[in-house]
Amino acid sequence: MIRFGFTRRARKPAPREIIAVKELLADKSIVLVGLMGCGKSAIGKRLAAALDLPFVDADDEIEKAAGKSISEIFEDHGEAEFREGERKVIARLLTNGPQILATGGGAFMDTETRARVAENGISVWLKADLPVLLRRVARRDNRPLLKNGNPAEVMEKLMRERYPTYSEASIVAESRDVPHEQIVTEIIEKLYDLSPDEK
Ligand code: S3P
Questions:
Q1: Residue-wise DSSP of the chain
Q2: Model pTM greater than 0.85?
Q3: Whose CA is nearest to atom 11 of ligand 1?
Q4: Which among 25, 44, 61, 135 counts the fewest CB atoms within 10 Å?
Q5: Residue 26 has pLDDT above 80, yes or no
Q6: Distance from residue 36's CA to the centre of ligand 1 (Å)
């Protein structure tokens, strides 16, 4: 069978939706949360472009502040110190809104960080299935939590531990194998639903 490569183009967000979402945000950040591999950076960059806002990756900022990679921070100082740095860096970044802020998978598990995000941001949980996550994390070996043990088992454990907390996010978007633009449009629609302009 011949397959013609027709791909349905994702609907673009309407200009009035973009305006309403930016008004809703004012100086808050859209904070992307979710497990490793759920697409926080890839989708975040496109969401930032769609809303014409800066994109900031908290893990990159932690690496800059520490002058080392996340793996080196875990190796040299341990996870507890990484979490402390993560909490501080995210607290600082949250004062720079409006922006799209991608956070590392464990960041939203911290009570203080969740409270700061609630005050200075709108959180978006990018929820993905295990096979999608595993396929995506297999592309790189930069994640210390996946270096020891079976990645599928580690991920399943993290799903059990973290999904109840991630579900506290303001909105949930299903991250799956569709063009990133489609997920961006869905996020903007959901944010628009939160806005007072929504009729
Ligand atoms: C972590 C996720 C990573 C990074 C660190 C710990 C986690 O970020 O912060 O390796 O605890 O889930 P990504 O979610 O961007 O991979």
A1: -------PPPPPPPHHHHHHHHHHHTT-EEEEE-STTS-HHHHHHHHHHHHT--EEEHHHHHHHHHTS-HHHHHHHH-HHHHHHHHHHHHHHHGGG-SEEEE--TTGGGSHHHHHHHHHHEEEEEEE--HHHHHHHHTT----GGGTSS-HHHHHHHHHHHHHHHHTTSSEEEE--SS-HHHHHHHHHHHHHHHSTT--
A2: yes
A3: 106
A4: 135
A5: yes
A6: 6
Does a structural domain hold residue 138? yes
In a domain, 123, yes or no: yes
Is residue 44 lining ligand 1, measured as CB closer than 6 Å?
A: no
The total of structural domains in the chain comes to 1
Is 4 domain-assigned? no
For residue 187, give the CATH number of its domain: 3.40.50.300
pLDDT tens profile 117-128: 999 999 999 999
Which residue range forms the structural domain that includes residue 60? 15-194
